[in-house]
């Protein structure tokens, strides 16, 4: 039972089965049926719904019931996106508090510029509706944290970083573009802005770049400047992330057809009995293109998150081994129609997280241009330093006053935490979702990973490849190419490419290698991604929650920073014990398994370190530098007989420590002579898949001479952790 309140009106209960309501749009229909007298002359899709939780008797209810002009958008209410499933906001098992208001229903504001007129075509109506609600200053403007609709941001005068200049750089009369951006990086907002542009919702672009620099638009063979008097063009905008993709291809087909039918209904074009994807998209394009009111005789197609039906099913192949390939065939049939009707498409823009090959998207649409790594859109996503200062300047000033710090102090923290993304190696941008979230609550948290992570990636990362993830790496540019959907589970071949495409790695610089081939230097962009990714990897390895992994890592970090090395290794050994047997039984057969764990951990902590650092004498497995000490570590593998031999372990410890001295890597650290130096031998058992012994020897290195102190061995301490 949902408690509903009409803004400026009365309260009512809506008895509805959440499980049977597919999305918010259908919920609007049910509300209109329930309150037909209140909304007799209003289309249900014009109602705005907001989620709240206000108990009966709350003083806020008086204001809401008496004031139809109350600014809900600037309250704590959550806007219910009409395209999303209702379970996104009200899970099936949620307990709705009785005698509470759960939903606020807001009618559209009356228009005073023109008398009401009968709706005929959406693209004729929208320009008249568009208006911008003015605010007094940036201080009064809300931050659009979860808002991805350009129209809503502009209408409710929320903060907006102007990206319209990048649209003017594209070919708007025949362009076909593809871009691969990470999730929560402004793709939906950009497409929403493009939609408003082609619908000529002119007032929404007030004070934006494109109003002062209007691009050329071809109308019936004549070139005209874009402006308020230009005829609008029908737009087919789809978000594939909203489709049900994990229940098999038949469900995916039905959901896609349903969305196409809903778009057709908005344009008074109905094909309700269609049950074929190809037929549905064909009829929609042709009916809109050939409509008498459409002087262009073409349509605009905008597709967001095209690869979501593929990414969402990785990890469930055991239950349905063919689901990814089956979903792939559904998408292929969809894009085949778009190819066949390219002369009916004035502008096509497709976004995704990854670049899957052989999808029809790349092989069928010959004119589709991938601008992911080009200069054309290198700044269209993410926020630059200047954009943050310009748009969020008032909020920065407020924070400076409250925290008694300078603007540069805050920007330095933001830069370390959220900056560093680049698609050309030149323009560096901040994560937009994280920046908006920060200015919404002024907390330096890891925001993006909560919404933008790609769940299947952590499962693909074998411990042997951890260093490829957390270290800077060079890759030939041609290898960052569309990947084959059938090969996506081959991490050794695809890992780096996928990590780049999904936002875990970014371009530090572009260079030419010795073979005169273009290469990319990739790295983790910032502290937020590094911390979050490593916690994800650790949690996946331990088969535990990210929160538990984070707590374990922080305990280890504290011990290492305090130079409690043996305690650090003992705690680390305890954590190894929590790794499921099937995860470690094969990986534990090589010393790099343990090395990779320590590597990942130290990377998270942020201590200066190197792994497998080559010297003229050989390689040191790892060295770690803390504030007061440097640890030179060699890992050795121990294959135990039926009975563990302490003597054999001792021999391996001595071999490891001798290797530290033979490699002489400490000779490269003469400027750190004030720090205490330790040679560490770490022996790892393939039998228990844990550390079975550690030796530690302090030494000094001055004037080219090594002075060794006593060797301390720790076997019993670790043997007690082998049970």
TrEMBL record:
This is Uncharacterized protein. It comes from Glomus cerebriforme. PANTHER family: AAA-ATPASE-LIKE DOMAIN-CONTAINING PROTEIN (PTHR34825:SF1), CONSERVED PROTEIN, WITH A WEAK D-GALACTARATE DEHYDRATASE/ALTRONATE HYDROLASE DOMAIN (PTHR34825). GO terms for cellular component: extracellular region; host cell. It comes from the Eukaryota. Residues 2-106 form the Crinkler effector protein N-terminal domain. Keywords: Secreted. Residues 145-362 form the AAA-ATPase-like domain. It is found in: Host cell; Secreted. Pfam families: AAA-ATPase_like (PF09820), Crinkler (PF20147), PDDEXK_9 (PF08011). InterPro entries: AAA-ATPase-like_dom (IPR018631), Crinkler_N (IPR045379), PDDEXK_9 (IPR012547).
């Amino acid at each position: 039972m949902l408690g509903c309140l009409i803004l400026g009106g009365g309260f009512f209960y809506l008895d509805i089965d959440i499980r049977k309501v597919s999305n918010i749009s259908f919920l609007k229909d049910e509300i209109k049926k329930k309150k037909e007298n209140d909304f007799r002359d209003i289309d249900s899709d014009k109602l705005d719904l907001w989620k709240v939780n206000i108990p009966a008797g709350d003083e806020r209810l008086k204001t809401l019931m008496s004031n139809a002009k109350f600014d809900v958008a600037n309250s704590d209410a959550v806007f219910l996106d009409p395209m999303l499933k209702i379970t996104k906001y009200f899970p099936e098992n949620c307990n709705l508090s009785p005698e509470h208001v759960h939903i606020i229903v807001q009618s559209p504001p009356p228009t005073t510029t023109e008398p009401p007129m009968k709706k005929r075509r959406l693209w004729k109506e929208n320009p008249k509706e568009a208006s911008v609600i003015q605010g007094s200053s940036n201080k009064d403007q809300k931050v659009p944290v979860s808002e991805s609709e350009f129209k809503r941001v502009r209408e409710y005068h929320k903060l907006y970083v102007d990206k319209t200049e990048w649209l003017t750089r594209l070919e708007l009369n025949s362009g076909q573009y593809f871009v691969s951006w990470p999730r929560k990086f402004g793709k939906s907002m950009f497409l929403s802005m493009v939609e408003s542009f082609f619908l000529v919702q002119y007032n929404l672009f007030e004070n934006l770049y494109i109003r002062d620099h209007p691009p050329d638009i071809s109308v019936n063979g004549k070139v005209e400047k874009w402006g308020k008097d230009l005829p609008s063009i029908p737009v087919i905008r789809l978000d594939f992330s909203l489709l049900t993709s994990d229940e098999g291809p038949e469900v995916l087909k039905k959901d896609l057809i349903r969305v196409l039918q809903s778009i057709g209904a908005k344009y008074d074009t109905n094909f309700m009995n269609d049950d074929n994807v190809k037929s549905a998209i064909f009829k929609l394009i042709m009916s809109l293109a050939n409509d008498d009111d459409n002087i262009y005789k073409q349509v605009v197609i905008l597709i967001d998150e095209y690869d979501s039906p593929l990414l969402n099913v990785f990890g469930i192949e055991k239950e349905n081994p063919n689901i990814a390939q089956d979903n792939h065939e559904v998408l292929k049939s969809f894009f085949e129609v778009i190819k066949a009707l390219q002369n009916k498409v004035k502008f096509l823009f497709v976004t995704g997280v990854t670049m899957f090959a052989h999808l029809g998207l790349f092989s069928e649409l010959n004119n589709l241009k991938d601008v992911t790594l080009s200069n054309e859109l290198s700044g269209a996503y993410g926020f630059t330093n200047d954009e943050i200062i310009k748009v969020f300047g008032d909020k920065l000033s407020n924070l400076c006053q409250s925290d008694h710090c300078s603007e540069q102090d805050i920007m330095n923290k933001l830069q370390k935490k959220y900056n560093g993304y680049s698609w050309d190696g030149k323009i560096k941008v901040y994560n937009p979702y994280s920046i908006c979230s920060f200015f919404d609550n002024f907390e330096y948290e890891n925001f993006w990973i909560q919404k933008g992570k790609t769940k299947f990636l952590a499962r693909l990362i074998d411990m042997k490849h951890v260093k490829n993830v957390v270290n800077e790496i060079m890759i030939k540019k041609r290898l960052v190419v569309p990947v084959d959907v059938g090969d996506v589970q081959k991490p050794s071949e695809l890992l780096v490419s996928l990590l780049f495409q999904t936002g875990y790695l970014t371009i530090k610089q572009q260079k030419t290698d010795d073979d005169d081939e273009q290469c990319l230097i990739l790295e983790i962009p910032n502290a937020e991604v590094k911390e979050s990714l490593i916690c994800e990897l650790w949690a996946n390895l331990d088969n535990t929650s990210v929160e538990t992994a984070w707590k374990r890592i922080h305990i280890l970090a504290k011990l290492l920073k305090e130079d409690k090395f043996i305690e650090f290794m003992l705690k680390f050994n305890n954590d190894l014990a929590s790794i499921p047997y099937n995860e470690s039984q094969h990986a534990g057969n090589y010393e790099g398994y343990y090395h990779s764990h320590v590597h990942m951990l130290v990377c998270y902590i942020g201590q200066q370190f190197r792994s497998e650092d080559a010297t003229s004498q050989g390689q040191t497995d790892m060295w770690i530098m803390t504030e007061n000490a440097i640890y030179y570590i060699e890992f050795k593998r121990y294959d135990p007989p039926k009975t563990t031999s302490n003597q054999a372990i001792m021999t391996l410890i001595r071999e490891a420590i001798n290797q530290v001295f033979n490699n002489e890597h400490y000779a490269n650290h003469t400027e750190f002579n004030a720090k205490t130096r330790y040679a560490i031998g770490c022996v790892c058992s393939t039998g228990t898949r844990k550390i079975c012994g550690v030796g530690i020897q302090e030494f000094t290195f001055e004037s080219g001479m090594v002075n060794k102190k006593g060797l301390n061995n720790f076997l019993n301490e670790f043997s007690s952790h082998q049970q």
